[in-house]
Amino acid sequence: MAIELELLMQVLVPMAISSELAEATSALLPMPVLLLRVLLFARRRIKKSPGAFAAGDRAYKQKNRTHLLLYSEGKVSLLNVLPKNRHRSFQIRYLTAVFFPATHNHATMPTAAKVNLYLTGILSIMILLLGLSFLGAPFTLKIFGLTQISTTLFLIERLSYWLALILLWLYAVRVEKGPLLLWRQNKYPLFGNIVACCLILSALLAGSFLLQAVLRVAGHDAKSTAMTHLMDLLRNKMPLLIFTAVTAGIVEELIFRGYVQPRLEEIFRNPYVAIIVSSLLFGLLHYRYGTLIQVIGPTYIGMIFAIYYWKYRNITVIIVCHFGWDLMSLLIATR
User: Fold this and answer.
1) Model-level pTM?
2) Closest among 257, 254, 239 to 327, alpha carbons compared
3) 54 and 6: one domain?
4) How far apart are CA 40 and CA 4, in angstroms?
5) What integer is the mean pLDDT of 308-320?
């Protein structure tokens, strides 16, 4: 699918726009296309060996109570609870489970069918968000006869993200037969949530200053033309500015932290891989702004949010932090 997407863009883009814009667009395509290839490769590997998951399920259930106890503590090798003739095969299939135990108990390991559904959902929402990000791209603006994004087109783009979230929720409920958020929401005292928000925002502020300083020294401090146009659009339009921050806080967190991150952990059986991959996906979808800081910055922000969500299982706090961070950044940039 990723190969077909790349070939389709190579054929359609030169037909719709000038050669200069086509060259600029083709330079931006490799990052998300490469990411899609990696996810599709993982899906093909699972399709080729569904028996490994089925055999793993049977082995997992042979000593269910003892196995769950040892697995949750993460101190004893899983090989101790299996018959001798199953040691080697189980060690190969679930070696990562020994060194990277899950953060909570599961009654069964995920089946191949369930993993397939998770991968399909992640691929689908990434392709959809990638397509929506092209609404503000130069070649799209040229098709509509615009030199920069208009208020109407920008509002349509923001509303389309809410539609994408609704479609993802329907997929989780109707196709996966489960909730949008796999992890149960933990509740904490109001004071604890306020302290958590302050600490997260402080980490984002310190990290952003450090990243900007490093990139400035490395000579990658160029300003984003697309971001400048966006700030001009939002200036003196407070309702639209607030709606932009609300959309980013709710939609992006429910998709990337609420939906993508827990399913990646189920797929890889490794919370650290889930944190890194979900953060990279989040950062790469900001590539349309055209500068390195607009990719590295969101990746760092996504990693802070992902670590907190994995540790504390409270998505409300990171939604509030994301909204607050974007609102503060937009107000400063448009003053």
Assistant:
1) 0.69
2) 239
3) no
4) 12
5) 96
